[in-house]
Amino acid sequence: MLYPQRLGQFTREHADTVAALLCGFLLFFGWFALHLGWFGLAFLLLPAAYVIGGYESAREGLTTLFKEKELDVDLLMIVAAIGAASLGLWRREYHLIIDGAILILIFAISGALEGYAMQRTERSIRSLMSLTADTARVLHQGREEEVAITQLKVGDEIVVKPGELIPTDGIILSGYSTLNQAAITGESLPVEKTVGEEVFAGTLNGYGALQIKVHKPAQSSLIQRVIRLVEQAKTQAPPSQEFIDRFEKGYAKVIVVAGILLATLPPFLWGWDWETTIYRALTFLVVASPCALMAAIMPTLLSGIANGARQGILFKNGAQLEKIGKVRAIAFDKTGTLTTGQVQVFQVFSVGEYTNDDVLIAAASVESSSEHSIGKAIVQAAGDLDWVGAIEVQAIPGQGIVGIAQEQQVIVGNAIFVQRYVTNLPEELQEIVQSWEEHGKTVVWVAKNPTPNPSLQAGRGVGCFDVMGVIGIADEVRVEAAATISRLKKLGVEQIVMLTGDNQKTAHSVANAVGIDRVYAQLLPEEKLNVIRRLQQQYQTVAMVGDGINDAPALAQASVGIAMGVSGSDVALETADIVLMADRLEKIAVAIHLGRRSQLIVKQNIVVALSFIMLLLVGNFLGNINLPIGVIGHEGSTVLVTLSGLRLLK
User: Fold this and answer.
1) By C-alpha distance, which of 79, 80, 74 is closest to 60?
2) In which element (H, E) is residue 349 found?
3) Is residue 244 within 8 Å of 297, Cβ to Cβ?
């Protein structure tokens, strides 16, 4: 019983190959029967070869014809083969029936080879799917229970043993281990993880047992987002492919009209006999078909997408792989992009009657509702103090945050934002702030209105706020940032700029450290967007690299939006076109190189495809090729450009 099941599975998985093999056997024995004069057997075997080898192409061609009212190359191949067979029966020159069968056989073999070539790309992409576990061990009243991943809830505690896949994103509650994150980030070296650190679904646990708390729904995990985006990339055709698709529809009609003219006019114009005329017209249908041109783009781009995914670069669709190779200017956000984003409070300075703890408590109360890295650093610094979360919290991206804590309105943000509510900033603080900013530190101002139950409406209570103090935030520049900027300049990127909501002094300090000459500081989210628009007017194709909610408008406006996958906010990840899964800036240069290689290979493929079509057309009109040779040249060029596209897998 097992053998028939395996045979059935093999047949389903390799249907094109099985059809081509059967077609080949029937063609050989049909030719052999004709050679021996067994015409009855030959006329039984050869039609079977036509049906088995050409069924799928005929089905697809007729479906396109009747449903979409369009002609495609599959139908043209079948018409050419049946035309050759009809001509052979009419003239009783049965070798033409063999020619038609050879056409179908080579077309079937080509289809099988193209299928295997594309499956290689598909396997590289589908390998992501195997990274998701089906079940997880959930701790329930001290006992382990196996539950489906889809049933996991936020707050569940799960156990992951050594050598197992992490089933979903979570925070380590206990345990220590090394995790292989290569499938997610493209980095081959294991990463050490311990209590309090985040782990990602699809990564492989090392030698230690871990107890993990689920902190987001399983369907929102990083690997699930990657899978959804890769699936989306496979189904979206880039503009170049859409152009080729439109071209093919019109081109097929031209071929049919030209084929009809070639089948009727030459006997009257040049005195050709009808057999030669029809045979040349059928050969024309084959050699003029744009199969190779159709295969010139998508295999290349899908291979590039698969290659990028293996290296921790997620292209959301083929259009972005094309665009990244054309980038002439790049804009970088500062915090979390050029810097690590793992910020810490390095110093607090209070004024008047307030203490440093008062400043931290007030700031942490409102920042506890923020997802910004600076807010998280403030909350962490105030972890040992006694404070409660504020209410009616409102964040103003790129400026600050307001809320009511213990019936008093608290304002936390940059100097410009706080000055809307404060008459004057204390001079002693301004001197300290200037010194911090010159050393590359980010400064957060804290102020509050001591009046109970103040209004949060804009403009109310202005001038009634007391400045409590300032908080200095230290953020390290990424070690690879300077090398990445240098590499991008060597690649020929004409303009590299920094966009930040931070102050001028801090921004220039970071820019000087990484080698960026042009800085736009103290920007609101809409101002970042305007800078991107101005760059696009000058350089056309502009990339934006960011990680925060305030970067989302600029990421959407940029020709290519690039988000940091680990530190990036959900909004930035959804808005961006490319995601760097490991937050490794040097991967930007890899992405640009991959995009340029894809463009080069696509151009090479188009040249090869058009060259083959021209050579075969000339050979057909000169009478130097027959139908089988035309098919071999036509299908050979198609396989050649498909295999050429697969070079990007390496």
Assistant:
1) 74
2) strand 344-350
3) yes
Give, rounded to a whole angstrom, the gap between the first and last alpha carbons of the chain: 41
Confidence (pTM) = 0.65
Number of C-alpha atoms within 13 angstroms, CB side, residue 427? 0
Give the Cβ contact number of residue 232 at 10 Å: 11
Calpha distance 540→560 (Å, rounded): 11
Query: SS3 for 592?
Result: helix
Q: What are phi and psi of 596, to 5 degrees?
A: -70, -40
Other C-beta atoms lying within 10 Å of the C-beta of residue 154 = 12
CB atoms within 10 A of CB 544: 32
The tally of CA atoms less than 13 A away on the side-chain side of residue 105 is: 21
Which pair of structure tokens corresponds to residue 244? 């080729």
Q: How many residues does the chain have?
A: 650
pLDDT average per 10 residues of sequence, the chain (650 residues)? 53 72 87 84 86 81 74 71 76 74 75 63 53 76 82 87 84 86 58 84 82 80 60 57 68 78 82 78 77 78 81 80 91 86 84 90 89 83 86 83 88 89 84 84 88 51 77 86 93 92 82 90 82 92 82 84 70 73 85 92 90 85 74 78 81
- Contact by Cβ (8 Å): 151, 134: no
Helices (H), 332-449: 356-367, 373-381, 415-418, 427-438
The residues assigned a catalytic role are 333
Buried b (16+ CB within 10 A) or exposed e, 20-58: bbbbbebbebbbebbeeeeeeebbebbebbbebbbebbb
**What does the DSSP assignment read for 475-526?**
-PBPTTHHHHHHHHHHTT--EEEEE-SS-HHHHHHHHHHHT--EEE-S--HH
| CA dist., res. 646 & res. 302, Å (int) | 9
Which H/E stretch holds residue 467? strand 466-474
Closest of 407, 418, 413, 414 to residue 450, by C-alpha: 407
- Cβ count within 10 A of residue 494: 11
> What DSSP state is assigned to residue 339?
B
**Which residues, listed in sequence order, are joined to residue 473 by a DSSP beta bridge?**
345, 442
**CA pair distance 610, 288, nearest whole angstrom:** 10
